[in-house]
Structure formats: structure tokens, C-alpha cells
């Protein structure tokens, strides 16, 4: 409360001026804050700021337009709130009612059009409505803000240099060969024997093309975990993540530290110490904890920005500004093509390079046919994706990916000044549905993924033993940069109710 020069208290005029413009803004940011709160165990706070600022500016501009038209603050704020609610809350109410858009949208549009006409024509003062709606908006946003603040206070970040993480310290490299090292990670690329047995698909043509380019393929490769982030983090940190349960808690749902261990990893740090530059590329956001700077925020199918706006009225339109299925799928296709092009350009960059490239393909969403044509998956559930129907679309996308990988390998080999190491290593195998294969078979399929290695200068190229993805970079660094890291025992831990609930499985 302000004080005048005569010592008397004055009314909070600033608050009165701001109140009409404030509550439409609060209604606008609530869906954003609520969505973030429900997903904060998987995404960093940094992804929230840009959409939060954009929403705030848009709500303020909307209020300004209505104020210029009507010159009445309360009416301008009420109309602004109405537009905000109609735009951002459409998907929430459509899902609650359970009607398809073609039925629900006309009802929604008529309802809000009638409210807008009533607000425009009303002549009475709406100040009381302003204070009621303002109080409701404050209560509404207070809940997710409190939840976000408490969560981040209770879940501090960890660093790759945290001595609690790793059972052994890794000595720095010292060898003289030091070729460029490329690690290409296709998501859910199943092992050849899995493709033959469960998919009735022969991948030998692709494998033959790799062998013709000097690759050796591991017939018994597998991964330590059943999800992408943990497997990639284990691979680039050259060790299992077995100490995370003690640090974070066995029942913790906070998987953000795993993505941090990919962005800043031990392999990159070790190789930087002998002159390498870390190049990190991803067609999605899987290996980034705060958004992928190389692609649009709206390109990844399940990005925070995509989830936010596909719940708005924009879900009804396509094109570059739309968020219907076709628009989202096309943006994802563009990101795949773009980042593969970026990968193919890396060999021409100067200096020694350690390159980590991840692509969500052949994992769903299934948007590519075998020749790169656009396809639309007809299923509507996660079980459909891992079903026999999903397997057919998976194979189409895998065939397209094979061509992209071979093109990338050719560009890497042709553009490198000296023969590079190239690792093609799936994070894990196919994400099968337990309803299709049964629980036991599903777990087995999940940890059996492709490993293929291009090892220049090797007379008889071999694969790491034991052939677990956690050992691949240990094997590569020992051969080319003078390290002497022991190979780790091979173990796999299937997905449980909690991400850090590690129970070793028996692999057949």
C-alpha cells in the first residue's frame, strides 16, 4: 500500500489499473503451466519460458485491441478472457465431452459467439465481474506454480562430474590415431534375428550394403535398459546407470538427469581433452533436456510446444500454422530430412569430431513409407503402435531409414579426410505390445537392437564382447585413442513401474 507525503495511505491505484488486464493473461497461461506441471519430471524448466512470454504478449495485445475499440477496461478484459478461453481450452472440453471435432466445434463456436455478443451489447459496469474472475484466475494459476516450485526445490540437478554416479574413474585418452568418431543411433531398430523371427522380415540387403562399406554387424547385441534415454546415456558415459536409484530414489519419476547425462557426457569430455569437438544432432528431442536447438520446437511429435498448442483451436487446421495430425506429421518429416542433411555436412567441418546423432526413426510416429512418401498410421492407441498393424508400418519406416542411413554413411566416408569410425547402434529393440507377444517375449524383444561398426585399419574387424551397447565406446576408444578400459559385464534391466527400479532380467 502506498503512502502520501502527508502520511496518509492512498488506494492501490496501480493494482486497480492492472487488474482488468491481468486475469485474461492468467487464464491464458494456466493451460501452459498445468501442462508443464504434469510433465515436469521429463522436461526442463527452460522449455517453459518462450511459450510463457509469447502467451503473455499475445494476451496483452488482445486486451489492448479490445480496449482501443471499447475504451472500457472491464469490457475489454472480459472479451479478452472470452477469446483466450475459447482458443486455449477447446481441446480440454472436447476431450471431457467426448465428441469429435466435427460435432463439438460448431457447439463451441456458437456458445462463445453468443457470449461475445452479449458482452459487447451489455451497458452495465463489469467491474464486479473483473474482480470475481481475477480472483478465480489467481487461484487457478497458484496451484501449478506452487507445484512447479516445490518439485524443483525437491529435485536438484546432477552433473556428469558427480563422483557418486560412476563406480570407476576413466583415465584420459592418449593414443595418436584419433579418427573422427560417429555414433548414429536409430531409435528402436530391432536386431536382425528379431526381424526375421517376429516380423518375418529379412534385413540382409541393408546389412550386406553395410558390410560392403566395411562394417561388421554384431549378431548378439543388446542394450542394458528398455528406454532410449537410459540406453544412450549409458553408452556415451561408458557405464551402467546403477547408482542413480541411490542418488535419486528408487521410486523417483524424475528422468531429467538422464537427458543431462547425454548432453554433457563422459565420452565427450574425455575426447575434448585430446582435441575433439562434440557435435550433437537429433531429429527429435530425445537426447536434449531443454529443447533441440537445431529444429523447430513444433517439429517433435511429443514436444512440450506441440502438446500445448494441439489442445487449442489450432488443432482444427493444417498447414504451417496448424496443429492437426497432418500438419504435425509434416513438420516431423521436415525435421528428419533437415537433420540428416546436417549430419551429411559434418565431415566437411574442420577439426576432429565426436558426433552423436539420434533419429526417432524407425520408432513411431509412423509417417514415412519405404520410399519417403507420406503415410498416415490408422491406429489410435499405444497398443496399436506395438501391434501387428504397427509392425507393418514400422517396417515401411525402417526401409526408408535404411536408405537414409546408407546415404549418411556414404557422405561421412566420402567427406572425411581420414577414414572415420562409424557406429550404427540402436538404443534398443522394437517397442512391442505385451498384448501382441506376451510380457516375457516383449521384454526380450525390447533389449535386442542393431549394432554395426565401421572400424578403419582393422584387419579382422570384431565387435565388443560382451556385445552390450554400454561397451561399444569403451571398445572404440581402446582401439583408437589409447585407452585401456575393461569391458563391462552384460546385463539388461526391463522397464518397471518406476524408471530407476532396476531388476536384472535373464536374456534368451
**Assembly type of the shown chains?**
single chain
Radius of gyration over alpha carbons?
27 Å
Secondary-structure class: alpha/beta
User: Percent range for helical residues?
Assistant: 40-55%
Going by CATH, the architecture of the largest domain would be 3-Layer(aba) Sandwich
Query: In percent, how much strand structure appears in the residues?
Result: 5-15%
Strand order within the widest beta sheet: 2-6-5-1-4-3
Please tally the helical runs, counting DSSP H or I stretches of 4 or more residues: 19
Gross morphology: elongated
Q: Give the total of domains.
A: 2
- The helix-strand sequence is HHHHHHEHHEHHHHEHHEHHEHHEH
CATH fold naming of the largest domain: Alkaline Phosphatase, subunit A
Largest sheet: 6 strands, mixed
Q: What is the CATH domain class of the largest domain?
A: Alpha Beta
- The residue-averaged pLDDT reads 93
Per DSSP E runs of 2 or more residues, the count of β-strands stands at 6
Weakly predicted, low-confidence segments: 1-10
CATH superfamily membership of the largest domain: Alkaline Phosphatase, subunit A
Question: How far is the N terminus from the C terminus?
Answer: 72 Å
